[in-house]
Amino acid sequence: AFRQLGWSAVAVVHPVAFNTPIPMAGLPEDKTQWRVLVLVSDWEGVSQQRREDAALVDTIAVYQGLTRMGVPGAHIEVKFHFTPIASDLKMRYAIFERLRKSYNMEFCIVDPVCKPREILSDYSLAIIGPTTGILEAVFEGVPFVFFGPGLDRIGLLRGYPIPQARTSQELIDILNRYDQDAMRGVYADISRSVKAGISITEAVSSS
Fold it and tell me: What's CA 88's distance to the chain center, in Å?
């Protein structure tokens, strides 16, 4: 898209493309045993949703949906993007800590320095916004659901049926009917497209 506009651009390969994908694990039947990682979209990306509070509102909706299903609040961990600006990092942490206390939520805040691909394997499920965490979850074999708008902005996945929820009820509905066998096929398609450096629709049509 940048080159079509006449701008200079260099394609960057995500590090996961050099890894061997791990087969997707199954979700435990007992939801009280789930451990869930919520990867919050970057602050700078919320403007696409035209809501300055999007990251917080979506976190509340995800938390409410999961706990209504029986997932213990203490088993939900929230991670926001790391920023090298100390004051900004402190502000983000304070905002989520205030959110947690104000609504009597039990979720834990993950150290933002940690990279998703280094910790994803510790979780049963990942709830992800428009971040590269999607690719990391796929290559780590961790089941995921995309939460919020913005999926159509990810060119690699455009036009492909990724499980997407926009509300807590939609999240519940998707997880209650989560087809793990079908998702293993989705993971294989995504892995193939990342390895080949082409969109997922191109990867599927050429397979």
Answer: 22
Phi/psi of residue 146, each to 5°? -80, 130
Note the pTM of the prediction, 2 decimals. Answer: 0.84
pLDDT tens per residue, range 20-36: 888 998 899 999 999 99
- Which amino acid is located at 114 in the chain? C
Asked if 60 and 73 touch (Cβ cutoff 8 Å), the reply is no
Q: Which residue has the tokens 């206390």?
A: 101
Burial class of residue 10 in the structure, from the number of CB atoms within 10 Å of its CB (0-12 exposed, 13-18 middle, 19+ buried): exposed
Tell me the HSE value of 57 on the side-chain side, using a 13 A CA sphere: 11
Instruction: Tell me the C-alpha distance between 35 and 54, whole Å.
Output: 23
pLDDT tens-digit map of 123-137: 999 999 877 788 899
Cα 141 to Cα 9, 45, 64, 86, 138, distances in angstroms? 31, 26, 25, 33, 5
What is the helix (H) or strand (E) element at residue 119, kind and residue range?
A: helix 116-119
- Name the residue among 41, 59, 141 with its Cα closest to residue 98: 59
Sign of CA dihedral 39, 48, 145, 106: positive
Residues in CB range of 6: below 8 A, 6 or more apart: none
